[in-house]
């Protein structure tokens, strides 16, 4: 593990450290499942990847490291869940903590992205595509990660789809 200083939460929202080119991976953190998405190297199209079952920090870290390596990704985006009124919840603190641990453990910059209502939007997209039941349950987290990534890419001036 790298020795780095603990980051101020604001530093994880400052996008100035994002490399100009290359793939980005995003996650929708949950207590049991973590949705994952990746964009192409031109940061035009985002797509969902298989959900990661969250059993321990070490296993999650290894799986994220493997995903970053597999896609030669240059950054990781962690969804930050706010309440609808803009306040933070317990899960917000969990996501911030997770992002901080990733920032200390990975060789790529880590960013936070507001993920308010992404799960609802993901469900709507999947329902519109005719996906229901167990299949929807298995796909919703990574579809939410795709939305998080698209929102992040839009924030940095790219068009995520």
Low-confidence stretches: 1-10
Structural class based on helices, strands and sheet pairing = alpha/beta
Largest sheet: 5 strands, mixed
Mean pLDDT: 83
Number of helices: 4
- The portion of residues assigned to helices is 25-40%
Apparent shape: globular
How is the largest sheet built, in terms of strand order? 3-2-1-4-5
Count the beta strands.
Answer: 5
Tell me the strand percentage band. 15-25%
Radius of gyration: 15 Å
Helices and strands, in order, run as EEEHEHEHH
- End-to-end C-alpha gap: 34 Å
Describe the protein:
With 161 residues, the protein is of the alpha/beta class. Helices cover 40% and strands 19% of the residues. It has four helices and five strands. The protein is globular. The N terminus is likely disordered.
Quick structural gist:
The protein is α/β, with parallel strands linked by helices. Helices cover 40% and strands 19% of the residues. Helix 3 packs across helix 4.
List keywords for this structure.
about 160 residues, alpha/beta, five-stranded mixed β-sheet, 4 helices, 5 strands, about 40% helix, disordered N terminus
How are the secondary structure elements laid out?
Blueprint: E1 24-28, E2 33-39, E3 46-53, H1 57-70, E4 75-80, H2 90-105, E5 110-114, H3 118-128, H4 133-155
Parallel strand pairs: 1-4, 4-5
Antiparallel strand pairs: 1-2, 2-3
Helix pairs in contact: 3-4
């Amino acid at each position: 593990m790298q020795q780095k200083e603990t980051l101020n939460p604001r530093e994880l929202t400052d996008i100035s450290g994002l490399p100009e080119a290359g793939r980005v991976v995003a996650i929708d953190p949950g207590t049991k499942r973590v949705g994952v998405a990746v964009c192409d190297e031109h940061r035009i199209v985002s797509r969902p990847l298989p959900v990661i079952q969250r059993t321990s920090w070490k296993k999650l870290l290894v799986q994220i490291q493997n995903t970053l390596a597999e896609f030669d990704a240059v950054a990781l985006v962690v969804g930050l869940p706010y309440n609808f009124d803009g306040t933070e919840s317990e899960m917000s603190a969990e996501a911030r903590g997770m992002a901080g641990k990733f920032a200390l453990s990975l060789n790529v910059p880590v960013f936070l992205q507001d993920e308010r209502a992404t799960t609802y939007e993901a469900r709507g997209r999947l329902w519109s595509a005719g996906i229901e039941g167990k299949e929807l349950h298995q796909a919703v987290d990574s579809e939410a990660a795709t939305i998080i990534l698209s929102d992040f890419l839009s924030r940095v001036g790219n068009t995520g789809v």
